[in-house]
């Protein structure tokens, strides 16, 4: 079968790989001039399979007023005259109910486990280099109550098979000596030794290269899709300025670009941009740079060592695509990172980036069928797209092949 995958971010590329593995002919169509240049470009680099708690959680409810007024809050809500923003926020609040948040965490845990196995298969078969490390992840908490809540939540995940343990502040520094400066701030941490990290953009570029050279996949860069042409309940072509691209099946993996294209077909996707920022410090100073991936939960900032570089990523803004405050937020991220790792390297010359997570209100991606028989979705991966891409790709390939995926597909339906 000829399958057209829309989007060459990490989700589209891994989808293409899973489809090729099943023997399909694949064409990828991408608006940009290369692979992984949008949300997949300079993300936090965390392959966080066990730490998949959704953003929507009862614990965020008391923090909502601070999101509105505190300019240095890790999460900011900047109200807009935008129906989509308000609709998304209402659904987010509903997803914060404790039973639903718990169920979501368990569902994402099984998708995370599938993703881990699927990524390992890609890494082994394709020998791609992307500064990949199996270095473990340490989430540090500043507030003792928050640490205690996290410890209790961890017990739920451990009972479901997750490999995690709780550490006090001293044990956190013993595990990661680069945290020594921050020790007075740390109440405790949750360590997941099996977590991994890597450079998502390098992964995407290397995978695109392998798809083209080894698997004869055609990638049509600089080809924005303006419309999906349909007849009799099926998609017949992806319309581009360079002509229509026909295929037997189409997979939409366009991140934020999925929304307008599907809207035009009468399919409303609950996906909204959650803006974040990253810094990349080149030539990071080894004794002062973490070798374990670290998350400072209070600030919602993640740190990942990427082959001699340190990637620092964080902040969540529910503010649409406006860029009015970007310079201020990058400076704030630099200041906050220096609280934890002041001597990691030259912050002044760090490479800066702003990206938009294509997020659903409950943090679960949208994977599966649409009302159009041959149109499939693999989008809305929010803050965990690098982590969940390979598993989501396996699920959609299973569905297209008529096999039963190993996760509950109803949990990922766009109209769940
Ligand atoms: C600051 C930040 C930190 C993050 N940290 C992590 C992390 O540590 N770990 C993790 O797992 N995830 C992380 N994420 C999330 C992750 O980066 C995203 O979930 C993931 O990159 C989404 O991939 P995607 O392929 O769905 O979207 P994208 O990478 O955005 O790809 C979609 C592609 O579709 C193309 N496109 C859009 N519209 C059209 C069109 N009409 N025609 C043709 N092409 C089109 C775009 O050009 C783009 O290349 C982070 C995100 C941010 C912003």
UniProtKB/TrEMBL annotation:
UniProt keywords, alphabetically: Oxidoreductase
InterPro entries per record: FAD-dep_OxRdtase, FAD/NAD-bd_sf
Enzyme Commission designation: 1.4.99.-
Residue stretches making up the FAD dependent oxidoreductase domain: 2-399
BP terms from Gene Ontology: D-alanine catabolic process
MF annotations from Gene Ontology: D-amino-acid dehydrogenase activity
Organism taxonomic ancestry: Bacteria, Pseudomonadati, Pseudomonadota, Betaproteobacteria, Burkholderiales
KW Cell division (keyword) present: no
Species: Paraburkholderia caribensis
Protein name: D-amino acid dehydrogenase
Matches recorded under PANTHER family: D-AMINO ACID DEHYDROGENASE (PTHR13847:SF280), SARCOSINE DEHYDROGENASE-RELATED (PTHR13847)
Top-level lineage group: Bacteria
Any one of the GO CC terms: cytoplasm
Family, similarity comment: Belongs to the DadA oxidoreductase family.
UniProt keyword annotation of Oxidoreductase present: yes
């Amino acid at each position: 079968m000829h399958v057209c995958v829309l989007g060459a971010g990490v989700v589209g590329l891994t989808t293409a790989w899973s489809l090729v593995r099943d023997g399909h002919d694949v064409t990828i169509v991408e608006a940009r001039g290369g692979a992984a240049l949008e949300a997949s470009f300079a993300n936090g680099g965390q392959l966080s399979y066990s730490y998949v708690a959704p953003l929507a959680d009862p614990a965020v409810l008391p923090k909502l007023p601070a999101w509105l007024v505190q300019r240095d809050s890790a999460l900011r809500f900047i109200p807009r005259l935008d129906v989509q923003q308000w609709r998304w926020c209402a659904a987010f609040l509903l997803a914060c109910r404790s039973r639903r948040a718990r169920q979501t965490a368990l569902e994402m845990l099984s998708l995370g486990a599938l993703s881990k196995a699927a990524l390992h298969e890609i890494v082994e078969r394709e020998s791609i280099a992307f500064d990949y490390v199996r270095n473990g992840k340490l989430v540090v908490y500043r507030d003792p109550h928050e640490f205690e809540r996290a410890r209790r939540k961890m017990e739920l995940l451990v009972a479901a098979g997750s490999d995690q343990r709780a550490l006090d502040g001293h044990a956190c520094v013993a595990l990661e000596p680069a945290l020594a400066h921050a020790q007075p701030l740390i109440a405790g941490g949750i360590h997941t030794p099996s977590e991994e990290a890597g450079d998502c953009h390098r992964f995407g570029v290397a995978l695109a290269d392998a798809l083209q050279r080894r698997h004869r996949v055609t990638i049509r860069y600089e080809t924005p899709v303006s419309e999906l042409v349909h007849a009799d309940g099926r998609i017949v072509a992806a319309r581009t300025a360079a002509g229509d691209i026909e295929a037997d099946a189409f997979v939409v993996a366009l991140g934020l670009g999925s929304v307008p294209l599907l809207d035009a077909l009468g399919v409303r996707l609950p996906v909204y941009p959650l803006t974040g920022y990253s810094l990349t410090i080149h030539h990071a100073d080894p004794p002062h740079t973490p070798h374990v991936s670290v998350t400072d939960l209070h600030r919602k900032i993640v740190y990942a060592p990427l082959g001699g570089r340190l990637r620092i990523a964080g902040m969540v803004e529910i503010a649409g695509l406006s860029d009015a405050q970007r310079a201020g937020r990058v400076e704030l991220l630099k200041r906050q990172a220096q609280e934890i790792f002041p001597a990691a390297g030259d912050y002044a010359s760090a490479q800066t980036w702003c990206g938009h997570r294509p997020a659903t209100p409950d943090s679960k991606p949208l994977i599966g069928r649409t009302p159009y028989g041959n149109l499939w979705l693999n989008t809305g991966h929010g803050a965990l797209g690098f982590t969940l891409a390979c598993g989501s790709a396996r699920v959609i390939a299973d569905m297209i092949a008529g096999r039963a995926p190993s996760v509950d597909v109803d949990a990922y339906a766009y109209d769940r």
